[in-house]
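Hi, here's the filled form for the chain we discussed.

Project: internal
Contact: R.S.
Residues: 192
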Amino acid sequence: MKELEERIRKEGTVKPGNVLKVDAFLNHQCDVELFDHMGEAWAEHFKGKTITKILTIEASGIGIACCAARHFGNVPVVFAKKAQSINLDGDQYVTTIYSYTKQREFPVIVAKKFLAPGDHVLLIDDFLANGKALQGLIEICDHAGATVEGIGIAVEKGFQDGGEQLRKAGYDLDSLAIVKSMDAETGDIEFA
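And the returned structure, exactly as it came back:
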């Protein structure tokens, strides 16, 4: 998606440790029009597939997933929570993921009443690096008996192996911008 690539080139910042900062429009301040265009692109890619739910992880995936849902007939968006709270009640699906950017493990929790056998799920997230977060969401879908119909990613770090592993496992993965390389010293970003 050229629009997203241009925004990354213009407003993204490369930090040491393979960190790409896109908080001006994607995961801190949100450009809702861009999110809408991203949802439209995913709807075109996954056209013909039955999608009954969109699943993401709090917090950065929520806005993107909600905008995307409008292009899939306003299906419900479910977001996995990263911590137990008194608001989480009833039976739950729980797994643990490792966050590359936070450098620590998180629980990932979805109430069973929001994900059921027979659901056809589109996973949406802002970044894909090593794929640990998506593996956690896939595990939750498996436990629920739900079918993962596809995965929509805003920015994939193509130089890390998460995308390759998911594609080899047979998942229909649509990353709107795939970063081939980036350099913290020069700020250069190259797309696949």
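Let me know if anything looks off before we file it.
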